[in-house]
Automatic annotation (TrEMBL):
<feature type="binding site">
    <location>
        <begin position="66"/>
        <end position="69"/>
    </location>
    <ligand>
        <name>NADP(+)</name>
    </ligand>
</feature>
<keyword id="KW-0560">Oxidoreductase</keyword>
<dbReference type="InterPro" id="IPR029036">
    <property type="entry name" value="P5CR_dimer"/>
</dbReference>
<dbReference type="GO" id="GO:0055129">
    <property type="term" value="P:L-proline biosynthetic process"/>
</dbReference>
<comment type="function">
    <text>Catalyzes the reduction of 1-pyrroline-5-carboxylate (PCA) to L-proline.</text>
</comment>
<comment type="pathway">
    <text>Amino-acid biosynthesis; L-proline biosynthesis; L-proline from L-glutamate 5-semialdehyde: step 1/1.</text>
</comment>
<dbReference type="InterPro" id="IPR008927">
    <property type="entry name" value="6-PGluconate_DH-like_C_sf"/>
</dbReference>
<keyword id="KW-0521">NADP</keyword>
<feature type="domain" description="Pyrroline-5-carboxylate reductase catalytic N-terminal">
    <location>
        <begin position="4"/>
        <end position="93"/>
    </location>
</feature>
<dbReference type="GO" id="GO:0004735">
    <property type="term" value="F:pyrroline-5-carboxylate reductase activity"/>
</dbReference>
<dbReference type="Pfam" id="PF03807">
    <property type="entry name" value="F420_oxidored"/>
</dbReference>
<dbReference type="GO" id="GO:0005737">
    <property type="term" value="C:cytoplasm"/>
</dbReference>
<dbReference type="InterPro" id="IPR000304">
    <property type="entry name" value="Pyrroline-COOH_reductase"/>
</dbReference>
<dbReference type="InterPro" id="IPR028939">
    <property type="entry name" value="P5C_Rdtase_cat_N"/>
</dbReference>
<protein>
    <recommendedName>
        <fullName>Pyrroline-5-carboxylate reductase</fullName>
        <ecNumber>1.5.1.2</ecNumber>
    </recommendedName>
</protein>
<dbReference type="Pfam" id="PF14748">
    <property type="entry name" value="P5CR_dimer"/>
</dbReference>
<keyword id="KW-0641">Proline biosynthesis</keyword>
Amino acid sequence: MARLTIVGVGKMGRAILDAVVAVGITGLDEIVIFDANPALLDDAVLAHPTITVGHKIEASDIYIIATKPPVVREVAGEIGLIGKGLVISIAAGLSISYLEESLGTQMSIVRCMPNTPGQIAMGITALCANSNTTAGELTWASSLLLALGEVVVVPESQIDAVTAISGSGPAYLFLFAEAMIDAGVALGLSADLSARLAVSTLLGSSELLARSNYDTRGLRLAVSSPGGTTIAATNEMEDSGLRRAIHRGIAAAHKRAREMQG
């Protein structure tokens, strides 16, 4: 049986906690949580009375570091003093080499990039591991993160690109939804109706896209009748530089992720 310690129960740390408890990971018999914010701890315990609030980091089989990046070095240093167990970090921009240096000892490390839809178990998490990590430990990490949605394994060299696409990606969709809603209001729809139309369209379209083997162009052309409303809209968006703006935004996210590398 395994002991899991989650350090940091903010948005993503709490999402992991909620998801892991909800699905019930086989072989996991104890969950311990830490956070500098007592209100977050109280709220977590209220939702999950069987978990334990830790007062100092003690030996565990698995540690999930879900703190803000500036706190990671201190947390990793405490874990490194224990010197054994699997360390999973969701801290953006902190490389495996940074984590190894912060731990100060040879430990198994999985670095991952989840996204916010994991809060409703519909996210996707990319992960990579250091050379100390065994196949069994990678399976453990994957099983935990599957509670948030899909899991993919990538080389660390691709994590910054993953961050730019899926890590930051939900905000791009929210921005597009916001623009759609604003446009509907400008056309005379109520804000509530415009939001329902936009969100339902984005939700249904995403599901349709997933079921069509990601055939973005085919689906787009299927609703773009010559001389019709859809092609008038997409032509205007293309002419206004929508595709270029998306590429530039994602490139900016990728650049910033590389700059943040520890």
